[in-house]
Description:
The structure is a homodimer.
Chain A: E1 2-10, H1 27-39, E2 46-47, E3 56-66, H2 72-82, E4 87-94, E5 107-115, E6 129-130, H3 137-145, E7 149-152, E8 167-178, E9 181-188, H4 195-207, H5 215-222, E10 237-243
Parallel strand pairs in A: 3-10, 5-6
Antiparallel strand pairs in A: 1-3, 1-4, 2-3, 5-9, 5-10, 7-8, 8-9
Amino acid sequence: MRHLALTVSYDGTRYAGFQVQKNALTVQAILQKTLRQILKENIRLLSSGRTDAGVHALGHLVSFKTASAISGGALKRALNSLLPPDVAVVKVESVPLSFHPRFDKALKTYRYTLRNHPSRSPFDRLYTTFYPRPLDLSAMKRAAGHFKGRKNFKSFQAKDKKERSSIRQIRRISVRRHSPYVFIEIEGNGFLYKMVRNIVGTLLEVGRGRRKPEEIRRLLLKKDRRFAGPTAPARGLCLLKVTHRSR
Amino acid sequence: MRHLALTVSYDGTRYAGFQVQKNALTVQAILQKTLRQILKENIRLLSSGRTDAGVHALGHLVSFKTASAISGGALKRALNSLLPPDVAVVKVESVPLSFHPRFDKALKTYRYTLRNHPSRSPFDRLYTTFYPRPLDLSAMKRAAGHFKGRKNFKSFQAKDKKERSSIRQIRRISVRRHSPYVFIEIEGNGFLYKMVRNIVGTLLEVGRGRRKPEEIRRLLLKKDRRFAGPTAPARGLCLLKVTHRSR
């Protein structure tokens, strides 16, 4: 038995997220179907996490066990010739049998992209959130600093019964302008359901002067979702990479 | 009566080109319908030219006459709130009544984008042509130089009965790499039907060593489409801008 990890890029626009669901098109279902077709085995993918409907990925990490002796290069070519144009495999690598793409200190980096310009653009519509109003970047940067570290993010967690603890660690968070875009990047060991989009929605309220940067600290202590800002739209979010200890 | 010019951006993926056609979705039809809805007049658009099905535009120039006193800013906002997400108006300006976006030494700039990398990307699939094989850029640059100037481009013209002359002038043509992309930019006063895509298809044959750069001169003298390379796919082509004397 071998254990192979795949780094996968996808445009999430037409998918109901990564994870298999009944009666919905998901990236995991398409990948599993294509792997079964190539390897003639009942492949079951392990994933570095779920992504929500409409969220994109440049480097989602998944893995699976196989009895096949196929080379990484041949598997990558076969996958990319059979997968639809909005899903592509970037890398195939061999990992230890004990590997799990979700555990072992996996570090995930998300990027949220805003088009912060008075006019919308047809070419940005799928991968950015259009936000025409001016944003106070220095206030957003100060607010972002309050999210850094190991905290209870219950105020930024959508209802989800699966998670026992709402304590997570944000290792890095940055807000920068590269006109006409504003990028918000967040790196951490794990994220609660819709946590990144809820942080972005709250940072946008700071950026337009509706909240003070210092409010974030109090907001975290509230541990109540109702006090944070709205969930930012899925289309602006992209899972950039998953870095792993065993790599 | 006023004459207004619109600079329009569109993602051409789902359109049968710019120009109105029976039983097909076109950008002109959508723009005219939306203008009529806003201005309650029977608007007829003049265009800087056609674009083929699937071709994109960052700055297509069109114009129309109206009795309305609406301000440019208000018209732009109304259009962008009613147009579909894959079409946007970038600029509205007043032009002389005698203006025609196609004539008066209008200069058009096209960009063709190739993704020249071993792997395809979901995010590039709509706006680039995937070309995984290595390309000899210096040969392509030499070949491109032979297209410059006032020439008979009959060898690069798709069949089209409307055009009386196949003489056109290319003012500027460049080939450059900005990894993973290769950009081919062409500027001229007018282009024959599929001329840019036929030039790109021929440059690609030079880039992969199937033709010598010097062949281009002979090819132009043949005045026969059968001797040139294939038509490059529409998705990689974008009309960047139309610059006009009266502006």
